[in-house]
Amino acid sequence: MSSVDTQSLVSGVRTAPDFATFLRIEMLLTLRQRADIANSLLFFVSVLALLPLGLGPEPELLAKLAPGMIWVMALLATMLSQENLLRSDFEDGTLEQLILLPQPLYFAVLAKSLVHWMAMGLPLALLSPLLALMLNLPGEGYLCLFVSLLMGTASLSLIGAIGAALTVAVRRPGLLLALIVMPLYVPVLIFGTGAVQAAIDGYAYSAQLAMLAALLASAAALAPLAAAFAVRISLDN
Q: For every residue of 141-200, which 3-state class applies, written as one string?
């Protein structure tokens, strides 16, 4: 998408400064940049499809590793797609215009994170039962895996926005972005895999899902604020 198109969309926000307009803009931008999201989804599916070839066809081994491997690959795929979350807006000057708008930058970052989840996290969750079947995951874990990925990937998208904002002015932020967000991803990974493993073992997993919901609520409230502050710091430098 050209900078002229992007800036014309942002100018429309001045006449309708609400969250719905931000969301519409981000959905249009994402539809025009489908290749980045498709690459991350292809990475997720390809690696998990190759796991039986690398680890061997033993059903017991695959079933034991499936919860952790699906969650780790979902985390990595989400992180790969986060690098460009704000970069195009930074390069064409749209971020500077967003800062000058009367409404807080919080809503723009929240809209970007939500659309990123809709384009990345939601497809990952929808694909998870099929990939779990390929990895011989016991049937007891399917529902928990789907629900935990729905909430967990939303948290990952929100948290990743902080790293994307801090590294938006860096030419090649891949490693730096990973170093920033990876420690923040660890609680989501722990409770996500823990919930699926508890479901497989026949234990109650509502506590782990409750923790994922609490992490999501905290991320929705705090991550866009932190990312908006980080954007201002990056632009000032």
A: HHHHHHHHHHHHHHHHHHHHHHHHHHCCCCCCCHHHHHHHHHHHHHHHHHHHHHHHHHHH
